[in-house]
Each structure stands twice: as structure tokens, then as C-alpha cells.
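Protocol step 4 of 5: obtain the predicted structure for the target chain.
Materials: sequence only (see below). No template structures provided, no constraints applied. The aim of this step is simply to have a reference model before the mutagenesis design in step 5. Sequence pasted as it appears in the construct record:
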Amino acid sequence: MMTDAQKTLDNITTPVLVAEPVKNEKEEITSFVIAYTNRAMDELSENSYTKGKSWSDIEDKVPVQLPWYKLLIQTARNQIPQNYTFFSARNNAWYKVDFSLLPDQNISILFTNITAEMTYARKLKEAISKDPLTGLPNRTGFSDDLDICIENCRFQQKYAGVFILDIDNLKNINESSGSKAGDQAIISVAEILKRFERDTIHSYRYGDDEFAVLISNQNYLDAILTISDTIFDCFQMEKIQISGGISIFPFNTEQKEELIRFSNMAVHYSKQNGKNCISIFEPEMQRRFIQKLTIQSKMAAAITECNFVQYYQPQFDVSSGKLRGFEALIRWTDDELGEIPPSVFIPLAEESNLIIPIGRWVLQTALSTLKNWQKKYNFNGIISVNVSPIQLAQEEFIYELQSLIRSNGINPNLVEIEITEGVMLHNMEEAIEKLKAIQDMGVRVSLDDFGTGYSSLSYLQALPLNTLKIDKSFIQDICSSDGIQANITSSIITMVARMGLETIAEGVEDINQFELLSKFHCNVIQGFLQGKPMPFDMCDSFLAGDTKALLKN
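Step 4 output (C-alpha cells):
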């Protein structure tokens, strides 16, 4: 028979549910059963929550976003009321749920429909959550909409996609053409994205140079990829370069933060693979990302603990066979990860700016080594040191280089700074000015990896250089029967000689390559044929007169 209290509860519009704890012999709560629901609760849940049912029997029917069991346990054990706000896709409404402990140790659960309040708050938030430059919702709006999108797609068993786009080289546009040009690029991207606005496609200004597109309620996974490809093709037609990353609910994950993180990982993957493309998140990207973070973390510790080692690869004059000098090459072996190649950790060091302290250590070590050999063996050879574009761009680099040369009492003509074409990517005029200042000090400047960039020839006219290093990719096929690489290499050496530059061929590994380079009048060779990279003590022995200390093929 219904009590007066139950009759009263049945006539109110607020849904009410009472849960009764189930205990074991030790008086420990193991579950909950439904002790009572009022009429409003039956209507809200479509009679899914029936008196006497165990919580485990209705878990597939309760709102997924509401951590029922956790809140019930906390209320029962702590005897402190709990509350939670969630969006119900079933009812298309927002609810505030209050959990309270009753005198009989049961727990009452009250559902208050707060859709009107949430709608008002949302409108208020929209007034301050729109990006003033583009008129698109900002990151806050994206976060709120993604919450609702996930709940709706979970309820309807449909797919959703998070498509994050990053404008390529916006910083360069701002620096070269001014902030107005950068703003115009941002506005152009926003205008393109607005063309795709639908009930299931919404765009957002996600960051300074980032946008997000939320693709919701799709029946097929391929539909998300088709929409993303279409958006990307539109940018290509407008000649706007963007890098994009896509993650898919629930294919990649059902968690909001992971969807965003996975999309960002895919954007990073696009950036690393030449930019102006889009990538779909794959688990391998997360493995690489974690590996990258691990290496960067260990690299920071290695800098503090001085765990790097310097190797030196000899360079020999082609015509005389005499030692020209050494190139300083950093090496790193970690106790857990083993030997980590420079091709792996140097790009990560540049990305995190750890290249600055690492480059400083390489330069200091190389110059102190040169001073050591000069004192012990009257060594008069050249020491070559690789300098990252990021390192060269530092305001204090010229001063540090000059200070190191002076403090070691070294002839600057015996120091050679090796650069790559990367120094020209950001500010060509500034790079040229710094390289001229280095030359004015008496320090030599060498262009490394020549032939790997598409604009190498044009750079030769602009850069102040003393030496050009021909990349090993040319040398490895120099003896091929078609003669193409031989002709190219011969032409490069002839052209460079006319410009008054010295040539060094990298990666020389056999006598046939050496003989051709000698025929082409290449000045210097470097490679396994005459000397592999060696630790300090082996170089020390070689300079002391032990020719067997030289590591060769």
C-alpha cells in the first residue's frame, strides 16, 4: 500500500529514485537495488528502473556519462550529499542529479531538469566564447559541443570525427608580411570552413593558427574521411597550405580528451611528413609520441649529467693524402634505450630547443679538444662543428663562439662551422649577416648536406661560404654504369672550384669512388674508406703516430 510520502512524491514533477545498499556478511556494500521510483522517474526512464532490480541489471540503460556506482558508494560511505550534472541524449535535456543519504541508510536520487538554465548559460557563454577575428566559436565552444556530440553519437551508435587543422608557416607570414597578412590568412581559412557548416559539421577557432572541425552523427566511418578530404581539397584549390589530423569516435577512442590528443598527434605527424597534408590517427603515432617524450625527457637528464660523448671523423686531402682535420660528431648511449642515433635525437632536440645547450656543449668540447691536440702534437688541422639553425639564430651565438676561441687561444682559421640550408628558412638576411660576422672573425663556414635541398644552387650565390660538402647520396652512386651521378658530381666540383670554394665529399667508402673524385679534382674526402668516426682516445693515439688506431672499412 502506498504511503502518504510516496503519494506526495508521485505527484511532483521531479524524478525521484531510491537505491538500497546490498551488503555481505561483513556489512560491506557490494551492490545496490532499486527500492522506489516515483511516476516522474518512470516517465523519464521509460520504466527502465523497476523496483527490486539490481544496479547491474540496468547498467546498459542508465546514462553512461553519470558515474552512478561511484556516487552511490561515496554517498553511503561518507554520508555527504553528492551531485552531478550531465546531458541526456535520450531526453535531449540537461539534468542535475542529487544523491542524499536517508535515515534508513537508503539513498535518494533526485533529477532536476536544468535545460533552461544551461541554455541561458550557454547563450551567455556564446557572447564571450566567439573568436572576434573570425566569428567562429572558440576552444571553449568546441569543448562544450564535443561533450554533447559524444553523448549523442554514443546513444545513437553513430560516428563522429575531430578534425584539427593547422595553418602552415603562419609565423613566417607574420614575420615577412606583417600581422595584417597573418590575420587575413586566418580569416580566409575561417571563410572556407564556414562554407561547410551543416547540422553535422561545425567549425571552431581552436588556437592562434589552429582550427577544429567537429563532424557528428555519421552512419559510416568513411563519411568522416570523405568530408575531411573535401575540406582539404578546398584549401588546395584556394592555395592555402594546412596540416590536418583526424581522430574518430568510437573507432579510435570514446574519451573526449583522447580524441583531441589523438587529432593533435595526427597533425604533428602531418607536419613531420612535409606539411600540407592530412593524417588519420593510428596507434603507431601514439607509440612514437610516447617514445619521443621519453627520449626528450632522457635527453634533458643527459645534458645535466653530461652523458653525451664526442666522436671525431678524420678528413683527408685528396691530392696529398694528408690529414685535413676532424669533424666533431656527438654520440649518445642511454642505459635503458641503448645507442640513440643523432638522426633520431637531434630533430627532437631542435623541436624542444634542447639543441641550444647540446650545441653549446659540442662546440665547447670540440674547441677544448683542438686546443689539447695543438699543445700535445702541434696539431695544425681544422676542427669542424655542426651548428643547428636554431643555435645559430640565438642572439648570443656569435659572442659565445668568439669567447670560446679566445679563451682556448685557438687560431680561428682552424675552426669550421658547418651549417645546412635550414639556416635560410626563417630569416635569410639575418642568417647571411651572422655568417658574414663568423667569417669576419676568421672562422670558416661550410655548407653541409649539399644536394639534398631543391634550392641548393641558388643558396650558393647568397651564402658566405668557404667549403661545400657534397652529400653522400651523390657519392654512393657515383660509380654507377649510367654515369649520371658522376656527371652531376663532376659539374658541382667544377662549378664550386670556380667560385673559390673547397669541396669535401662525404660518405666515400671504396677506392673506385676515391679515384673518380680525384679525377674530378675534389679537394677533401671523408668516409669509411679512410676513417670512421672515432672516440677521443683513438684519435689521440692516431695523432701520436699510431696509424693502426685509425678505424677504416
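Step 4 remarks: The chain has 20 helices and 20 strands. The two ends are 97 Å apart (CA to CA).
Proceed to step 5.
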